[in-house]
């Protein structure tokens, strides 16, 4: 069995923030961990960029690594800033970046 590799989230956040800034869509994503049903993805969004409303996995959380975002759930906006962690309810939701932002999405899938 291989030794686990430590990941520097600050370095990864900076890398994907730069990729999002260079992207015409203002987004960059990287699947960091895929272990059975567990997935962790780093997502970078430039200010004003959004992930349209989509279905939620059976369990998920969103941690803001840098910036300020709003998680939109059932018409309500929940603003999150650097360092905050939010459970994502099992309903359709979206994400809006108020400033250049990077988040860590942790999800359990079927």
Summarize the structure.
The protein is mainly β and 110 residues long. 13% of the residues lie in helices and 53% in strands.
Q: Topology of this structure?
A:
Elements: H1 9-22, E1 27-35, E2 38-45, E3 50-54, E4 59-66, E5 68-73, E6 76-81, E7 85-87, E8 93-97, E9 101-108
Antiparallel strand pairs: 1-2, 2-9, 3-8, 4-7, 4-9, 5-6, 5-8
List keywords for this structure.
mainly beta; globular; 110 residues; 5-stranded antiparallel β-sheet
What does this structure look like?
The chain is mainly beta and 110 residues long. The protein contains one helix and nine strands. The strands form two sheets. Strands 1-2-9-4-7 form a five-stranded antiparallel β-sheet, with helices on one face. It has a four-stranded antiparallel β-sheet with strand order 3-8-5-6, with no helix packed on it. A hairpin with a 2-residue loop joins strand 1 and strand 2 (38-45). The longest helix has 14 residues, at 9-22. It starts with 8 loop residues before the first helix and ends with a strand. The mean pLDDT is 93.
Low-confidence stretches: none
| Terminus-to-terminus distance | 25 Å
Summed over residues and divided by their number, the pLDDT gives a mean of 93
Q: Report the biggest beta sheet as strand number plus sense, adding barrel if it closes.
A: 5 strands, antiparallel
What is the C-alpha radius of gyration, as a whole number of Å? 14 Å
* Topology pattern, helix = H, strand = E: HEEEEEEEEE
| Shape field | globular
Can you count the helices? 1
Query: Helices and strands: which structural class?
Result: mainly beta
Helix percentage: 10-25%
Strand order of the largest sheet: 1-2-9-4-7
The total count of strands amounts to 9
The fraction of residues assigned to DSSP E strands is over 45%
């Amino acid at each position: 069995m291989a030794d686990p590799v430590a990941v520097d989230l600050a370095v990864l956040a900076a890398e994907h923030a730069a990729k999002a800034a260079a992207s015409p869509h203002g987004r960059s994503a990287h699947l960091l961990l895929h272990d059975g049903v567990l997935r962790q993805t780093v997502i970078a969004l430039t200010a004003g960029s959004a992930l349209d409303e989509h279905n939620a996995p059976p369990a998920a959380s969103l941690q803001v690594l840098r910036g300020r975002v709003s998680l939109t759930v059932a018409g309500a906006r929940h603003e999150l800033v650097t360092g905050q962690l939010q459970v994502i309810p099992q309903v359709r939701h979206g994400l809006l970046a108020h400033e250049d932002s990077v988040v860590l999405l942790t999800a359990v899938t079927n």
